[in-house]
Design a protein that fits this description.
heterodimer, A: alpha+beta, Alpha-Beta Plaits, 2 domains, 5-stranded antiparallel β-sheet, 4 helices, 10 strands, B: Rossmann fold, Rossmann fold, 6-stranded parallel β-sheet, about 40% helix, globular, binds thiamine diphosphate, binds magnesium ion
Chain lengths: ~180, ~600
């Protein structure tokens, strides 16, 4: 959950199970653009059930209230279930790949930073390093920030993926918001 | 049983109980037209695919059954986009079948290829490109299920040519018909709501019994849910007044003592003002459209809101309800009536609403719908034409309209006594809707008289469908209110653009509507003076073997009142000048 300076929650993570059919992603994307909702990030992949795919959508709720976004999404016939993932009750991960300027003067610092963050070096050339980092999105944010001063040549982040945290005492705080649509 | 995709498609329509479809063939859909020759389904050949779509809508409005249209790929599909969007905005159940190029040509910019599912994605409740012949029965079954349940709407099925072409091996399939369970299993994400939450219904009943100035705000959802009887029971049980939106005209009888008529931008003074002053609005199948609310922040400022809708996304979309109930309007109203009876049995009584009732009747007396009678020698007053027509037709006549001033006058001056007697384009406001919609309505209800009230501008957009009506012997009647202008736009230019009239003049006699009607095989009549009104209407009513077009030359200066200017608060409603003056003289303040 990202918080604006005023303290209001700006980003929410929705985990959306959809039927694994052609055009479903287009339907979801189309709904967001047609209704003026903003997507902050979107990740799509098949699930354990071959009939379903999971979209992890981080939505910007400053543009419109989460409730409307969820209800409109739920009206899509191919959307099977929507769960709002509360960061306190979910595990979230993101992967970053970055190619960074690393001449002999700064190379050591980039390597050190990558080690501190437990990232990996994927490729090396005379002037450049390609590094990767997998972790919680805020950690990935921090890493990106600290890399910036060295000069990022190329950057790719996957967007957030998330699952509900396993629940020890059976009292799930997961909010399944998908209901019944028409 | 082995068959080809085209046969399966037509058979699936027969299984769905389709009795009539509207369409026009072309290359990609050609194979499907062949088995139509052997089917009991009546196919009505239109002159433009937009006509097919609006006919399907008119049929659905009048009968409650889904309208079916079939067109070819590319231009056929794009020509029906407007009616699809119209049906989407007004929640009209409709199934549209479009041809598509063969599966192996998709994506190659083949002749008459267009991305039909892409184009219609945001204006259909659902759409589907079928890629295998064996999916045809299932997809058709699902399409009808989706179009007619929950919040109804248009569903489009895009059918590539190879899977329906008997000459192509792709078109072979073994016929089957999916069961209800199989349909449900095939749609794991589709669960329309039905019954409302009992606790919420109970809270709604309590709010109703606590309110001093309640108003029922009935929308088109009442008609979709076939809830007109339930609505009447609720109103009579509670003694609460009812406004019927443009989409709900006929859902509650206009001659009922509790009926306040239409609210909104051109609603009548009492309907608009009662909502503004209410302490409770019971919104049933209504969606707080901007044409009803005016400036949202200033809409019904003192009212608590009970909102019932089958589409959960409508609850809180525009105005946050105090009690929101997602459910089928008929079922929820019936439960609500039960809850109210139970509370009454426990001695809970509504407060004294006599002051509210007398306030309402005061408004009704002071600001009835009215217009200034014509001065000798002036052109006809459109309202007067409508009053004559209203008094000359059976009370269950189906009235269709186009979009513009004539639509507002038709809605205002008609006396609707039965549900499903008003067919119009509300949400999209589609000029050209009325002629084809009237044809579709008449096909669905051949026992009823069907009149279309059209504008001269609208008529010119889809009039060619009268050729279809003549050819198919569908005796609709059309009253053109010919004011020689795109009148509604003219009204805005007069009121808000300093009378600078830009591109709104159409001419009274170009085209010659009588000759045009005759050329299309209709009877054409022209009415220029008040004495001619009644004889022309009588003559039109007697003709039952072909369509009739009556052109009324009406006053181009006439404006629709009352009016709330776009984006303004409903408190700033303008009554017609002659009422405003009277108010001024008596010093009552025309709020
Ligand atoms: C397809 C379409 N184009 C434009 C408009 C904008 N528009 C709304 S009412 C109107 C004028 C309609 O003229 P006419 O049919 O003569 O009706 P009148 O208002 O004169 O009664 C126009 C152009 C529309 N609603 N639909
Ligand atoms: Mg006109």
């Amino acid at each position: 959950m990202d918080v604006t300076p005023g303290g209001a929650v700006r980003h929410h993570t929705l985990s959306v199970l959809v039927e694994n059919r052609p055009g479903v992603l287009a339907r979801v994307a189309n709904l967001f653009s047609r209704r003026g909702y903003n997507i902050f990030s979107l990740a799509v992949a098949p699930t354990e059930d071959e009939r379903l795919s999971r979209l992890t959508i981080v939505v910007d709720v400053e543009s419109s209230p989460l409730e409307q976004i969820v209800k409109q999404l739920d009206k899509l016939v191919n959307v099977v279930q929507i769960t709002e993932l509360d960061p306190r009750d979910s595990v979230e991960r993101e992967l970053l790949l970055a190619t960074v300027q690393a001449d002999p003067d700064t190379r050591g610092q980039v390597l050190e930073l990558t080690q501190i963050f437990e990232g990996r070096i994927l490729a090396v050339s005379h002037e450049l390093l390609t590094v990767s980092l997998e972790g919680h999105p805020t950690k990935v944010d921090d890493f990106e920030q600290l890399l910036r001063p060295f000069g990022i040549v190329e950057l790719q982040r996957t967007g957030r993926v998330a699952l509900a945290r396993l629940d020890r005492d059976g009292d799930s705080r997961l909010r399944s918001v998908s209901g019944r649509a028409s | 049983m082995e068959m080809n995709g085209a046969q399966a498609l037509i058979k699936a329509l027969e299984m769905e109980g389709v009795e009539v479809m509207f369409g026009l063939p072309g290359g990609a859909i050609l194979p499907v037209y062949d088995p139509i020759l052997d089917s009991p389904i009546r196919h009505i050949l239109v002159r433009h695919e937009q006509g097919a779509g609006h006919m399907a809508e008119g049929y659905a409005h009048a009968t409650g059954r889904p309208g079916v249209a079939m067109v070819t790929s590319g231009p056929g599909a794009t020509n029906i986009v407007t009616p699809i969007c119209d049906a989407y905005m007004d929640s009209v159940p409709m199934v549209v079948i479009t041809g598509q190029v063969g599966t192996s040509s998709i994506g190659t910019d083949a002749f008459q290829e267009c991305d039909t599912t892409g184009i219609t994605r945001s204006i259909t409740k659902h759409n589907e490109l079928i890629t295998r012949a064996e999916d045809i029965p299932r997809v058709v079954r699902e399409a009808f299920h989706i179009a007619t349940t929950g919040r109804p709407g248009p569903v489009l099925i895009d059918v590539p040519k190879d899977i329906v072409d008997p000459k192509h091996p792709h078109s072979k399939l073994d016929w089957y018909w999916p069961s209800d369970d199989e349909v449900a299993a095939g749609l794991p994400g589709y669960h329309p709501v039905t019954t409302g939450d009992p606790t919420a219904i109970r809270r709604a009943a309590e709010l109703i019994l606590r309110s001093e100035r309640p108003v029922i705000y009935a929308g088109g959802g009442i008609l979709k849910a076939r809830a007109a009887d339930a609505l009447r029971e609720l109103a009579e049980l509670t003694g609460i007044h009812v406004v019927t939106t443009l989409m709900a005209r006929g859902a509650f009888p206009d001659d009922h003592e509790l009926c306040l008529g239409m609210p909104g931008m051109h609603g009548n003074y009492t309907a608009v003002t009662a909502m503004q002053r209410a302490d409770l609005l019971v919104a049933l199948g209504a969606r707080f459209d901007d044409r009803v609310t005016g400036k949202v922040d200033a809409f019904a400022p003192g009212a608590k809101i009970v909102h019932v809708d089958v589409d959960p996304a409508e609850l809180g979309k525009v105005r946050r309800p105090d009690v929101g109930i997602a459910g089928d309007c008929r079922l929820v109203i019936e439960e609500l009536v039960e809850a109210l009876r139970e509370l009454a049995a426990h001695g809970v009584e509504a407060p004294d609403r006599r002051p509210w009732r007398s306030t309402i009747s005061g408004w009704q007396e002071r600001f009835p719908l009215s217009y200034e009678p014509p001065v000798e020698g002036d052109a006809l007053k459109p309202q007067m034409v409508l009053e004559h027509l209203r008094e000359s037709v059976p009370e269950d006549t189906i009235l269709c309209s186009g979009v513009g001033q004539h639509q507002m006058w038709a809605s205002q001056y008609w006396r609707f006594r039965h549900p499903y007697t008003w067919v119009n384009s509300g949400g999209l406001g589609t000029m050209g809707f009325s002629v084809p919609a009237a044809i579709g309505a008449k096909v669905g209800r051949p026992d009823r008289m069907v009149w279309a009230v059209d504008g001269d501008g609208c008529f010119q957009m889809t009039a060619q469908e009268l050729v279809t009506a003549t050819a198919e012997r569908i005796p609709v009647k059309v009253a053109i209110l010919n004011n020689a202008y795109l009148g509604m736009v003219r009204q805005w230019q007069e009121m808000f653009y300093d009378e600078r009239y830009s591109e709104v003049y159409l001419s009274p006699d170009l085209p010659d509507y009588v000759k045009w009607a005759e050329a299309m095989g209709c009877v054409g009549l022209r009415v220029e003076s008040p004495e001619e009104i009644q004889p022309a209407i009588d003559k039109a009513n007697e003709i039952d073997d072909r369509p009739v077009v009556v052109e009324f030359r009406t006053d181009s200066r006439e404006k629709v009142f009352p009016m709330v200017a776009a984006g303004q608060s409903n408190d700033s409603i303008q009554v017609p000048p002659h009422q405003a003056d009277a108010t001024h003289r008596t010093g009552e303040g025309g709020r």
